[in-house]
Every structure is written in C-alpha cells, then in structure tokens.
Q: What sequence folds into this?
C-alpha cells in the first residue's frame, strides 16, 4: 500500500476505551474503535443487517453490538457473530507512537466493501 493511502485519525487517548470515532467519507463513514485493552480496529460504520451506525454500539472484548438490533460484529474481521450472517468491511490500522493511522482501502474478504 502506498503512503498516500493512509490518513492520521488522531491519538489513541482521543478515543475513549470501548468507544469509537467516525471518519466521514463520501464513499461511506468508517468507525475507528478502541477496546478496553487499547486495541484499535476500523470497520465501515454500517451494520450488515439494517445499516445501523456501528460507531454508536457498545464494545465488548473484540466485538461491537449494533445499536439497532443488537447484532454482534467482530471488530477484527467485520463478520457478524453466528447465528447472524453478514459482514462490515474492515480497514487496516497501524499505530505510530500514539498516533492512529487508517488505510482508506478496505481489507479483502468482505463482499460489502
């Protein structure tokens, strides 16, 4: 991936633990999540079920619960947790010092990317 594909989102401490920050884009918003263990993940901010804003969901471990119908989505893969089926596109993130960098190219493997 080229360097111009990455954008600075902010510092880790600017996102509350078990919270999210939204990166607005014309192609669709991206939610950047922080777990209680300070792990950072990024997903398209749209539940695969009814399009609910995942950034407004509750983060538990490495999952987020959609605020509309409580679907659980894996933060590391974007996949809905069984018995639900579907996928929210996931995006690569990297940490440089305490700065979160986000790739604007989604990971492969999700048909909703």
A:
């Amino acid at each position: 991936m080229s360097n111009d594909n990455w954008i600075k989102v902010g510092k880790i401490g600017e996102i509350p633990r078990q919270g999210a920050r939204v990166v607005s884009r014309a192609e669709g918003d991206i939610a950047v999540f922080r777990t209680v263990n300070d792990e950072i993940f990024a997903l398209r901010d749209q539940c695969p079920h009814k399009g609910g804003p995942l950034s407004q969901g509750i983060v538990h471990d490495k999952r987020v619960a959609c605020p509309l119908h409580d679907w659980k989505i894996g933060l590391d893969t974007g996949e809905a947790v069984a018995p639900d089926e579907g996928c929210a596109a996931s995006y690569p993130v990297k940490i440089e010092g305490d700065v979160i960098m986000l790739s604007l190219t989604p990971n492969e493997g999700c048909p909703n990317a």
In short: The domain at 3-103 is CATH 2.102.10.10 (Rieske Iron-sulfur Protein). The first strand starts at residue 6 and ends at 11. The CA atoms of residues 49 and 111 lie 14 Å apart.
